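ugh ok fine here u go
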Amino acid sequence: MAPTTSRMSSASIAFLPDDLLYETFLQCAGACLQPHIGPDVWPFNRAVESFTPFWRINDHLCSRYTSPGRPKCWDWTATRLMLVCKRWSALILDRRVLWSRPLFLEERSAQWTLSRSGNVPLIVRHALLGLADNSWFLNFMGQERGFSRCREVVIDVDRRIGGAYDDFLWLAQGWPSAAPLLEVLALGIPSGRPRRPNPLSTAFLQSATRLRTLALVNFPLESWSSVHLKNLTTFIFRSEGRFEYTTVRDIIRFLRNTPQLQTLVLGAPKSHFIEELTPVPCIRPVVALNCLSRLSLSGPRMHALDLFQHISLPPNVVLELRMYRCHPTDNVLYHLEEAIQERYHAAPLPLDPQTDLGDADHRGSLPTFDRVSVHFYRNVEVTITGFTAAADGTLHPAISIVLGVEGVQRPASLVAQVLRVLRSGSAASFALSSSRREDFDDAVFADEALWHGLWRALPALKILEIVNPETSLEPFMRSLMPPLPPSLRAGALEEEEGCPLPALEELHVCDSYSEASAVLPGFACLRQALKARAESGRRLRLLELRNWTAQVIWSVEEMRSERTVDEVVFNGFFVRG
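structure:
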């Protein structure tokens, strides 16, 4: 019976219409034959590009280059199976769309591909490598007016020292007068070179009436005010140097001429160099971007926040604000609260930091976070991200705030206040991590009050995860302990506080195999805190310990016998209470 069924299935597949077979092939080929269009598409290679927004990035495999300089095109594992059948092979190879993606590493192969593409609009994704011969590519795009044949052009110039940058300068000497088919243009070049390319011509952009994605990294525009891109849906502009960037006023003028914009990424240099990057006008001109779905702004000190206050956007926009090298005099938290309150119509924050912000009345149109993550980098930068859950439980990033500090400030001291600004009180899951264990500043995290400030900002927390705590483990564990009964308190009478994180059900701690001498005291505090929580009716359902030294296994066994928690997972093994 099985062989008969197999033959019937094969016969039904063999007689599928040609168009359906070809559409199936294109689906298998994936994004290699499709332009970089969409709100979650990043046209540059993430392996090379040092900055990408925090939301999910759909970069294409064919944009990656191996060390010998040969591109990895689409994965043939699935598509080559369709070429086994003679009929399918002839059908696919005869369709000109298959040949719309030429590879310019060798002139012979490129010429052969172009000869079969006919008049199909081309997709050109090429990395100018310093040690490669780029003459054929430059000749095609320049003298042969390849831009006029292209649907997409992505050029990524090698950052290493070599002739790639000079090759690109030659190409940028004269932009074509027309690009009627162009839908995607992405140009990425290194910064800090003494010779700068000619700016992207306004006449060239105006001729690209179909342009929907424009991405420029370290590449200047000829004009910000004279460009009208009515069909543009994605604009990416990032600069690492002072000469390519512009003023807030010019950016606002440009955005007023892009009414269909859905994704906006603007990145100013991290260093502060121009006073106009941080203007404080009395009356801010506001541009309305009603179609926007993703927004990422970055720059030194208050630049990103100031630009954010010039933009009116829908309440459901995925937002990222990166503020680097903030100085204590910037008063960044005050201005962040002011901007959030204005853009999301949120109620002013209570002056008392212990006030519970779980009530939706304080949130306005701010998204309701289901999970919050905090990540530290080199003890000078912290990233705070709020996630919302879809109907199927999938988490999606909603808002991300990146704070880089200078001077005596420490990023850890700002986290609880930022969580209050974002009204994160409804979050049920919280993760705290760092790139290195040293990033948890002992002088800051040794303060138990800092941890209590975090817990007050997250009153509904059920799942808590902390990675690489090291020496800050003991004050962290003590902060989870419920208050002592009045009869056991020392000193004057105090007003009794509730148990920290009363809804907590799961605790996950990853210790990265610290030395036993550093772990054992912290684990003793953990055991004491969880025992006190269990006695007060706040018993944990699950405790997971990852990458802990085996020398604490005896304490884990004692915790099991005391029934401090329902279940313990120790380095991947269950220890039931």
